[in-house]
Amino acid sequence: VVNSALIKIGAKTITDLASDSSREAVVARRSYSVQLDTLLRMYRWNFAKERVSLAPDGTAPAFGYENRFRLPADLIAVVGLYDANEPLQNYTGTTRPWSVEGRYLLTTDTEARITYIKRVTNMAEWDPLFGEAFAWLLAKDLAFYLTTSSKYANLAFAAFKNAMRDAKVANAFEGTPEVLTSSEWLDARSTLGAPSNFRPGPI
């Protein structure tokens, strides 16, 4: 993926990311992990989703919420909390309040069943379209260090946005569309005065 990014900006390719001493490899090593985590956090990638049940860590927050849960070490972003009272089409939502603060999740529940985006470093587990988008994102970052013009960075960023669009579309078709449940905010957005069981439809 690094060589793909380098080729996209007309730079020299490398032989090994870990041991190559070339300028291209040194710069890529500095950017790779940061840009990978950035891209993983940008969207709800199906290949990176993980489900886990968390138990309270034994230390209650100073005020507000009743319980604190230590988040997994490989967590990039919390997608949502599971609620058995919600339909499966709202599998990442709950009406109960929760908050992520630092590396902890706070809620009043005694158990937190979360869906989250995990750090996936094995390329074999990536969606191919994600890999292409990542190559363009990395190319944008590398272009600032390895070229003397912002032209390549701008071209790479434009290509990245197109690659992201394609990857998101493919990702969205792999499951039943999620449905938002009614809330005071959604009801207020309805000019017809939606009833309490109003459901606006898939998102």
Summarize the structure.
The protein has helices at residues 2-8, 23-42, 128-146, 151-172, 184-189; strands at residues 49-54, 67-70, 75-81, 98-101, 104-107, 112-118. With 203 residues, the chain is α+β, with helices and mostly antiparallel strands.
3D structure, described in words:
- This protein has 203 residues and is an alpha+beta fold.
- It is elongated.
- Strands 1-6-3 form a 3-stranded antiparallel β-sheet.
- It contains 5 helices and 6 strands, in the order ααββββββααα.
The major β-sheet equals: 3 strands, antiparallel
Strand content: 15-25%
Approximately how much helix is present in the residues? 25-40%
Structural class: alpha+beta
End-to-end separation: 32 Å
Number of strands: 6
Instruction: Note the run of SSEs as H and E.
Output: HHEEEEEEHHH
Name the overall outline.
elongated
Strand order of the largest sheet: 1-6-3
